[in-house]
User: Which sequence fits this backbone?
């Protein structure tokens, strides 16, 4: 679920320290649900600006850790909002589902790094 | 090699901040984080950074606005900024940021080599620029110092070139040579000024002393004819005062004074009145020479009071002078010339009150004489005032007599003494203003010499070897006390050479 190439590049910039990478993944694991929740709330009250910016932020972090599918979904939402279209509820739901998958993958990866 | 520097990471995304921060730590940089534009700007105000890593998409104030504010602020105009751009499709915003003055951009995910190269290059450029700015700044300081000197008045310490002169490079060398020359010019000018002051002061001092010295044998002569000393004091002071007032009015000065000035004049008049009574009382009981020598005490009294009140700087040398002078005066009490009925040591002691009172007046004038008050006006008023203060005592004591209209010898002598006192008082105030109370009080030295000379001439007194020796001792003491030192913070003129 997490792209190996992306994780290798990330650990390289962090100085090849597995602990640092684990810290980073934990940070993302904490920050992710907040971003997802913000997106849901923004979609519910049709706050396009917050939704776009949060999608952009989640996309950026997702790409950093190699969560490509989640990043692509966020990119689609961001692009639609930039083009002036409102993303439908299905896309937002997909973000939630994909986060659950990434969350599990993050847990596995963190355990492996700390193991 | 590590990059030493302090970087501010501005990003609303915690994961992104952490990645950038860890990457910075890897290459040896210290870092701080800001979650938005406003926090970033306030952190930049609080402390120094070498570089900013800036995200563009942020809630509230975005990266572009942060860029604009930084470039509009003189303090942060040169601070390098690297834009952190996302993985896709932000190039138009990055281009805008670069147009606003961002150094370059870092695209995510970071490539370790490129990341280090860009951060390092920015920080090095920043440090080089800082060195350049410091250099330019110090050149400015040096140029300003040169302008200050060229403009005229200057004081070497106020040129503030010490930090520039401390530089180990060519600029430092130039600044230290410049400072050295400024100091030399300054010292020469100050030396010259002191010489001129001493010369002018000396001339004034001799003139004042010679005239005042004449008053001493005159007092003795007056006493021989007229023992109504209070009346004599009244008339001499009134005549002296009227001469000064006439002089002031003749030169277009107003005799009007304020209430505060009146208080000062009253103090002065009281001390002066008392001194003139004592002078005329003592004059008949001691010789003119003894009276003249006693007058030297004035210089020591002034120095002692000035040193006690910290008006002028005391030194060991000056105190030694004071000591030697006092030995000379005490010796006078022992070796007093034997003359029938005069020079009783009690009366010599009484006569010593006169120079002590004069010393008090010196200090009063040096400290309190209002610079706005014309010296001729103040002298005139004080002399008249002291006469008026003496008048009731003279009447009660039966010392009243009239002067003129058919001027007898005594009347002439009283008028002459009055004239001398009036002129001397004015000269004395001018002398204090120019050279300070301690220097001015050395007119006592001139008074003593002149008094002795006038006494020999007018009274036919003789100077014995012993009296001569006490005189020499006193003179040595006076030389050691010396004139007032000029304050250290005076500016001097710098004269440019005329161009050929």
Assistant:
């Amino acid at each position: 679920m997490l792209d190996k190439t992306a994780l290798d590049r990330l650990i390289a910039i962090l100085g090849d320290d597995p602990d640092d990478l684990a810290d980073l993944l934990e940070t993302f694991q904490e920050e992710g649900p907040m971003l997802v929740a913000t997106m849901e709330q923004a979609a519910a009250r049709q706050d396009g600006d917050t939704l776009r910016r949060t999608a952009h932020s989640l996309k950026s972090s997702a790409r950093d850790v190699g969560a490509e599918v989640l990043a692509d979904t966020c990119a689609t939402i961001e692009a639609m909002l930039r083009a002036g279209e409102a993303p439908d509820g299905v896309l937002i739901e997909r973000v939630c589902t994909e986060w659950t998958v990434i969350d599990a993958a993050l847990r596995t990866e963190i355990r492996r790094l700390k193991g | 090699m590590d990059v030493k520097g302090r970087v501010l990471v501005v990003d609303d995304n915690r994961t992104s901040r952490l990645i950038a921060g860890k990457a910075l730590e890897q290459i040896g940089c210290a870092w701080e984080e800001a979650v938005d534009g406003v926090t970033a700007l306030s952190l930049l105000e609080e402390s120094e950074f070498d570089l900013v890593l800036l995200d563009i998409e942020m809630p509230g104030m975005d990266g572009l606005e942060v860029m604009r504010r930084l470039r509009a602020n003189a303090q942060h105009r040169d601070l390098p900024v690297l834009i952190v751009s996302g993985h896709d499709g932000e190039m138009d915003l990055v281009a805008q940021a670069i147009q606003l003055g961002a150094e370059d951009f870092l695209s995510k995910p970071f490539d370790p080599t490129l990341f280090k190269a860009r951060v390092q290059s920015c920080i090095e450029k920043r440090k080089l620029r800082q060195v350049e700015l410091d250099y330019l700044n110090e050149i400015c300081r040096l140029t300003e110092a040169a302008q200050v000197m060229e403009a005229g008045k200057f004081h070497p310490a106020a040129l503030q070139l010490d930090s520039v002169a401390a530089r180990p490079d060519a600029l430092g060398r130039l600044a230290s040579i410049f400072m050295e020359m400024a100091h030399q010019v300054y010292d020469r000018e100050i030396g010259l000024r002191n010489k001129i002051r001493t010369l002018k002061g000396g001339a004034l001092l001799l003139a004042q002393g010679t005239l005042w010295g004449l008053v001493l044998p005159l007092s003795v002569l007056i006493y021989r004819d007229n023992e109504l000393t209070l009346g004599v004091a009244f008339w001499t002071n009134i005549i002296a005062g009227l001469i000064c007032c006439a002089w002031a009015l003749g030169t277009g000065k107003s005799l009007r004074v304020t209430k505060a000035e009146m208080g000062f004049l009253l103090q002065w008049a009281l001390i002066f009145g008392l001194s003139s009574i004592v002078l005329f009382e003592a004059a008949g009981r001691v010789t003119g020479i003894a009276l003249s020598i006693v007058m030297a005490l004035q210089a020591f009294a002034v120095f002692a009071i000035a040193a006690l009140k910290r008006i002028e700087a005391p030194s060991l040398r000056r105190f030694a002078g004071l000591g030697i002078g006092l030995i000379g005066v005490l010796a006078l009490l022992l070796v007093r010339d034997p003359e029938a009925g005069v020079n009783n040591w009690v009366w010599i002691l009484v006569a010593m009150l006169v120079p002590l009172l004069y010393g008090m007046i010196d200090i009063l004038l040096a400290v309190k004489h209002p610079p706005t008050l014309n010296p001729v006006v103040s002298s005139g008023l004080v002399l008249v005032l002291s006469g008026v203060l003496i008048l009731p005592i003279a009447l009660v004591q039966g010392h009243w007599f009239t002067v003129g209209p058919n001027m007898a010898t005594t009347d002439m002598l009283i008028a002459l003494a009055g004239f001398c006192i009036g002129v001397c008082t004015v000269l004395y105030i001018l002398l204090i203003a120019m050279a300070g109370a301690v220097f001015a009080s050395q007119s006592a030295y001139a008074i003593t010499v002149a008094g002795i000379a006038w006494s020999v001439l007018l009274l036919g007194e003789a100077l014995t070897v012993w009296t001569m020796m006490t005189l020499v001792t006193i003179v040595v003491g006076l030389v050691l006390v010396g004139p007032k030192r000029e304050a250290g913070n005076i500016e001097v003129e710098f004269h440019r050479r005329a161009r050929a």
